[in-house]
Amino acid sequence: MNEIEKLVRENIRSLSPYSTARDEYQGTPGVFLDANESPYPGALGLNRYPDPRQKALKARVSALKGLPVANIFLGNGSDEAIDLMYRIFCTPGKDNALVIAPSYGMYTVAAGINDIQLRSIPLGPDFSLPEAAIREATDAYTKLLFLCSPNNPSGNAFDPAQLERLIAGFPGIVVLDEAYADFSAKGSLRARVCQYRNLVVLQTFSKAFGMAGIRLGMAFADAYVIELMNRVKYPYNISQPAQDAAWKALGSTPEEEVAEIVRERERLADRLPAFPFVHKVWPSDANFLLVRVDDADALYGFLLEQGIIVRNRSRVKGCEGCLRITVGTPAENEKLLTSLADYEKSHLR
Ligand SMILES: *Cc1c(COP(=O)(O)O)cnc(C)c1O
Description:
By secondary structure, the protein is an alpha/beta fold. The protein has 2 domains: 3-249, Type I PLP-dependent aspartate aminotransferase-like (Major domain) (Aspartate Aminotransferase, domain 2, 3-Layer(aba) Sandwich); 255-348, Aspartate Aminotransferase, domain 1. Helices cover 36% and strands 16% of the residues. The chain contains 13 helices and 11 strands. It has helices spanning 3-7, 10-13, 21-24, 55-65, 78-89, 106-113, 131-137, 160-169, 223-232, 240-249, 255-271, 296-305, 330-348; strands at residues 72-75, 96-101, 117-122, 142-148, 173-177, 199-204, 217-221, 278-281, 288-293, 311-312, 322-326. The strands form 2 sheets. The protein has a 7-stranded mixed sheet with strand order 1-7-6-5-4-2-3, sandwiched between helices. A 4-stranded antiparallel sheet has the order 8-9-11-10, covered by helices on one side. A hairpin with a 6-residue loop joins strand 8 (278-281) and strand 9. The termini are far apart. Bound molecules: pyridoxal-5'-phosphate. Pyridoxal-5'-phosphate is lined by residues 77-79, 104, 148, 152, 177, 179, 204, 206-207, 212, 217.
């Protein structure tokens, strides 16, 4: 048994997956009387089950991301891959996982659903990576470490060299969530999955690619880990409309939109500190800004009345007094700035 195999739950290691009718048949299209589908296309032309391995779409993702198909998993959003990590590697009541705090809430929710003990490691000053504390919290039952870079909600990307040091020294699986990597000059570590067998990199079509509505997430990892994910996932986890839409959209890259969002992020980061009720704007490598203000609840409520919805993170440990503001279009950001000016005036009275 290799090092990664030893980390896998015993029931998963020996699992024989559901074999779909379409898995078995690899030839050219013929007369399909194997899957109990309707033979009639109906109004939508969706009478056939979708490809359970998403071969056509994966070929495009492979070309786009520069990794072989064997190293790619596609899921119903990143959330599916996060849940699969617990289900594949963690035995309830026995194993544990590590998260940094503050970070993305789904790591915690998925741990709760799967009844896995979670150890929360506070980030250091200015949301720096707590390398020593992570090592200290690790024991023989620690199977997963969730890292998010750029991190949500703090917005900062960690130093890639520091991340690699952690990955190389960690005895379990490191899940590196790069949902916002397209907005960061620090780039991606996905090519490193060929080097570190314990690294799983998550990316998504929900943010820079502008396709949150189709629910499509990617995981990049060692071929054995990808094989485990395919074994445990629902057989037809990506619907045909989602596969088709993504396949079409992947022809063009959203570089212009991403560049504009990054420009607007820097413009907002410049302008926001001028408001007297803004205490701090953290530097961001993502498409949002974490902003500490005088009275987060009051400002949140005011913006809501103006029809501007931001994320109130003021009750999250480590984010006291903070709002998380997503960067919008230039016009939307202008509306935000105008509303903030109105808020300032209303508070001078
Ligand atoms: C938005 C976000 C995702 C994306 O999740 P999907 O399920 O792919 O939409 C993943 N990770 C983080 C940290 C996020 O903020």
